[in-house]
Write a structure and sequence with these properties.
By secondary structure, the chain is an alpha+beta fold. It has 14 helices and 20 strands.
Length: about 475
């Protein structure tokens, strides 16, 4: 309708006149063209509108809850029985405490559709706990979320006479790091949190939050393939012919679809057994950890596994060819200590691809280094650092190095913090605030020496053209600014 629309939210206050896009924007920003709200972050602006509405008496702030009732009953055998008895005279009556837990019958038949508990000849028929009359058990069972919502409390303590031991559970909980798929990030964690808080409210446990940290890993994906009749084809049914894909059996062209998560419906799953037999478990694991950050999806690639396999062979060759030697290699030693620090930090942050990237660099540095005591120690350390991702390789390489015991029992490598500090720094040299040169200098160079080094630069001499500087400002280990 060509109605004039003013921008009321922008990235910053000075973008108030920026043209609107073609679609609605719902990102946070700064209020603009909004009178007394101008310049406020949108969240603060909303609170201010509510405050003024309440002060003026024409409105008030409310909280809109999106929670809904949780339908926990299921019409199936496998599940926790619902402890309710139905009596025509008394209605729904709870099973008495001394009759809990209700145990499912073992003599069940699954030969017909529907809930088999409804057809059991004796289990469902009981006496009403209230009046003693004829009654029937509730045959629906509880949703499996009822069990998975508190399993971590049971794992932390496993007494034989009760669901969990409170003191033992409180010793271990909350869970420090929860790792799961993104589909768990809503329902399961919501139910687990509800269950934990309900138990706390009932005085059963003193823990309110079940999990301290959550990490959701990505999915494994693969290309999809479609035949001319629209049917999906599996990766082992097609081959690449130049830039095209061909159905192996019929020779007909195949349409290459999107890269999607592996699923039975799209038939883009890969049988791991042939891959494991060809390359080994270490190469497959190494590829999966090294290819991308674990929170992102991973595209399955046999070429990537081949690359990981080549790296496994490189480490094996280093281990089998290495022998104790004399002499030190300061550069390699510094690289080794920095790698140990970086790998430890990356693993602690669940950034396994970054840890493996560091091991690639260390391996290359070792290969280029001459035989020395430092080189042999670097290979030993490389094997230790690679062990979490390539345990089979690491154990074999550890033995090949002549070490006793298993590498998995060996102490994790440590590093010297002093080796993480560069001996040299880069000094930026400016004249009247403009960069004119960069110089390498020893760390900790005093002001007089830094000034002399900067003034001796050929580039600085040309710029000064014989003139003496009026002032020299030195920021240690960073900057020399000459005021001409």
């Amino acid at each position: 309708y060509q109605l004039p629309i003013k921008r009321v939210v922008a990235n910053s206050a000075d973008l108030a006149s920026e043209p609107l896009g073609t679609e609605a924007e719902n990102a946070a920003g700064v209020a603009v063209n909004s009178d007394f709200l101008d310049g406020m972050p949108t969240e603060k602006a909303a609170a201010e509108v509510i405050r003024r509405a309440e002060t003026a008496g024409w409105g008030k702030g409310t909280v809109q809850y999106r929670l809904r009732d949780w339908g926990v009953s299921r019409q199936r055998y496998w599940g926790t029985p619902i402890p309710i008895i139905h009596c025509q005279a008394c209605g729904a009556v709870p099973v008495p405490r001394d009759q809990l837990p209700v145990v499912l019958p073992d003599d069940i038949e699954f030969d017909k559709p529907g809930n088999p508990l409804d057809r059991h000849p004796t289990w469902r028929h009981v006496s009403c706990p209230s009046c003693g009359g004829e009654a029937v058990r509730e045959t629906d069972t509880l949703d499996t979320f009822v069990d998975s919502s508190w399993y971590f409390i049971r794992f932390a303590s496993q007494p034989t006479d009760k669901p969990f031991d409170r003191a033992e559970a409180e010793k271990w909980l909350p869970v420090a790091q929860y790792i799961g798929g993104v589909e768990h990030a809503i329902l399961h964690l919501l139910y687990a949190r509800f269950w934990t808080r309900a138990l706390q409210r009932m005085g059963k446990i003193g823990v309110a939050e079940p999990f301290q940290g959550l990490f959701t890993q990505g999915m494994v994906t693969h290309e999809t393939y479609r035949a001319g009749d629209g049917s999906w084809l599996s990766p082992d049914e097609v081959r690449k012919d130049g830039d095209d894909w061909i159905h192996i059996e019929s020779g007909q062209p195949v349409s290459l679809g999107r890269v999607e998560k592996m699923s039975k419906s799209k038939r883009n799953t890969v049988d791991p057994e042939p891959i494991l037999a060809k390359y080994g478990a270490d190469a497959v694991r190494w590829f999966m950890l090294s290819d991308s950050p674990p929170e992102r999806d991973l595209e399955w690639s046999e070429g990537g596994i081949e690359g990981a396999s080549r790296f496994v062979q490189r480490v094996w060759r280093l281990a089998t060819a290495s022998a104790p030697a004399e002499g030190a290699d300061d550069a390699l030693n510094r690289k080794l200590h920095r790698t140990v620090a970086a790998v430890g930090e990356a693993i602690d942050g669940l950034q396994f691809n970054k840890a493996i990237a560091q091991l690639y660099e260390l391996t290359t540095a070792i290969e280029k280094a001459k035989p020395s005591a430092t080189r042999h120690e670097a290979i030993r350390t490389l094997v230790k650092l690679a062990a979490p991702a390539a345990p089979h390789l690491a154990e074999e390489a550890w033995a090949a190095l002549g070490e006793q015991g298993m590498v998995s029992d060996a102490a994790w490598p440590t590093f010297n913090p002093a080796q993480l500090v560069d001996d040299q720094v880069t000094l930026a040299v400016q004249i009247n605030g403009k960069l004119r040169d960069t110089l390498s200098a020893p760390r900790g160079l005093d002001r007089a020496a830094a000034e002399a080094l900067a003034l001796a630069s050929d580039k600085v001499q040309r710029q000064l053209d014989g003139a003496s500087p009026r002032k020299v400002i030195v920021v240690p280990d960073r900057l020399v600014n000459i005021v001409a």
